[in-house]
Design brief:
alpha/beta, Alkaline Phosphatase, subunit A
């Protein structure tokens, strides 16, 4: 009898062992959700967690303080289109000659056949979406905005896209959802030109009395919502956006996406438009910072992040969501509109301790806020690891069990989630027109370049171009004021050889 009972007990144990494991909790049952929140023209010093500016950004600070705050996080370029291209493809932008700041009617920059971050995540079972600023081109040239516009974001790996057609300072001033312009009246066709104005259409240059925000340079063409832009448009009035509502519009779509997709893993590229020009905050934020519209739209962006985090919490998703926050490039003050960004700056330092800003080869052009938060998985801390947005592709591939890409992206996952202080060894960084510099360890090399030392279209910004080769120790001289090239010939030789082995001989 005892033997028989033991037999039955053994059978029972084998049966239990062979059964599927009990259902895991929501936080354990699937791959982690991934959200990349991408600001536009936000400087290292604009986030109060870095302790060098005067703005208050409590929700950005939450990401920094409850996750890893990187002290050496970089975009690949000091301008928008190239850095976005790099983030989504894992390639340095200078490898694609077209990866420069695009006009509003540019064709799609990313080849639909090439590997991309959203494609890789789709292969891993993710639902994918991009919501916000795109600026990577749409269509194949000569777009008819009254028909389906393609190829576009959906053709490079995004299941859902809700984007502005170009940028908020370029025409057409409309939203595009999955390739279709929203809200078009078929009896009021939208026409766009970057060559000449349409007969009878007012412009900022000829009709400044119609403007509620005066342009300073370059943004004096077609008027929408009392603001003149780059380029000309006619018709499509019902579809044109109201700038003050843009932040809410994108936020609501981002919230809807995570609510709809919460039962399976999702990837969201939430591309904020702030603080890019024109800076037009909602009335809830206008005048709240004392720094003019630039400060106010940063406060607005911070609020959007807070509202989005609350949605993740309400849906029970925080413990299974990796959030990466950064900016496409460094800060700029006057970038085309008279909005008192410089006059009301006070003691605030958007560039932090660094030199330069948007458009510049100096460090503030690409040395940007960078942080990663994953509640319960990433222990809060500060990292000195050298990481770049180009590395997000390979690092996330490692995270979700996909093959590492054969591109410029490096696997720095352990640094990204706080398991290591080791990032990449070196990084090529880019300023205007594919001019590049090289960081290795604490050293930054800027080769000799012909060209204007100041940005030529009205922005008071140093390009970093010089007839002299420049070498800086970025750890001891964050402001890049002491050029050591003349004193350290062997270091220069070493840096140039390694730089050229990656980049080739620069023009």
């Amino acid at each position: 009898m005892i033997r028989k009972n033991l037999q039955w007990l053994l059978y029972a144990l084998i049966f239990v062992a062979c059964q599927p494991s009990a259902k895991k909790t929501e936080g354990e049952s699937k791959q982690p959700n991934i959200v990349v929140i991408y600001a536009d023209d936000l400087g290292f010093g604009d986030v109060s967690a870095y302790g060098v500016g005067k703005l208050n950004t409590p929700n950005m600070d939450r990401l920094a303080n409850e996750g890893i705050r990187f002290e050496n996080g970089y975009a690949t370029s000091a301008t928008c289109t190239p850095s976005r291209f790099s983030l989504l493809t894992g390639q340095y932008p200078w490898r694609n000659e077209g990866a420069q700041v695009l006009p509003g009617d540019a064709p799609l920059l990313i080849d639909p056949a090439q590997p991309t971050l959203p494609k890789m995540l789709k292969n891993a079972g993710y639902s994918t979406a991009v919501i916000g600023k795109w600026h990577l081109g749409l269509g194949s040239g000569n777009v008819d905005w009254n028909k389906h516009v393609g190829p576009g974001a959906n053709d490079v790996g995004f299941d859902y896209s809700y984007i502005m057609a170009a940028t908020n300072d370029r025409v057409p001033n409309v939203y595009v959802e999955n390739g279709d312009v929203l809200g078009l009246d078929p009896n009021d066709k939208l026409e766009v030109s970057y060559r000449k104005n349409f007969v009878g259409e007012p412009t900022g240059k000829e009709n400044p009395e119609l403007l509620k925000m005066m342009y300073s340079h370059g943004h004096d063409m077609s008027i929408n919502n009392g603001i003149s832009r780059i380029g000309f448009q006619r018709g499509g009035k019902a579809a044109q956006w109201i700038d003050e509502n843009m932040a809410d519009t994108f936020l609501v779509r981002a919230q809807q996406f995570v609510k709809q997709q919460k039962e399976k893993p999702f990837f969201l590229f939430y591309a904020l438009h702030q603080p890019h020009v024109p800076r037009v905050p909602h009335s809830r934020f206008a005048g709240t910072t004392g720094m003019g519209p630039r400060g106010d739209v940063i406060a607005e962006a911070d609020w959007c992040i807070g509202e989005f985090l609350q949605t993740l919490e309400a849906e029970g998703l925080m413990e299974n969501t990796l959030i990466i926050f950064s900016s496409d490039n460094g800060p700029v003050l006057d970038d085309g509109y008279e909005d008192e960004a410089a006059e009301k700056l006070g003691d605030h330092m958007p560039w932090g301790p660094f030199r330069g800003g948007k458009y510049s080869l100096y460090d503030a052009g690409t040395h940007v806020p960078f942080m990663a938060m994953w509640k319960g998985k990433i222990q809060p801390g500060v990292s000195d690891a050298l990481v770049s947005q180009v590395d997000i592709f390979a690092s996330l591939a490692k995270l979700v069990g996909q093959p590492l890409p054969e591109n410029d992206s490096e696997d720095v996952l352990d640094a990204l989630i706080g398991k290591s202080q080791k990032g990449r060894e070196s990084l090529v960084i880019e300023g205007l027109k594919h001019k590049t510099a090289f960081r290795k360890g604490d050293w930054v090399l800027i080769p000799s370049y012909e060209g204007p030392t100041r940005v030529p279209w009205g922005v008071d910004m140093n390009t970093g171009f010089s007839k002299e080769t420049q070498l800086y120790n970025i750890k001891e001289d964050k402001a890049q004021q002491i050029n050591l090239a003349g004193q350290m010939t062997e270091k220069i030789k070493e840096m140039i050889e390694e730089f050229e082995s990656i980049r080739g001989k620069d023009d």
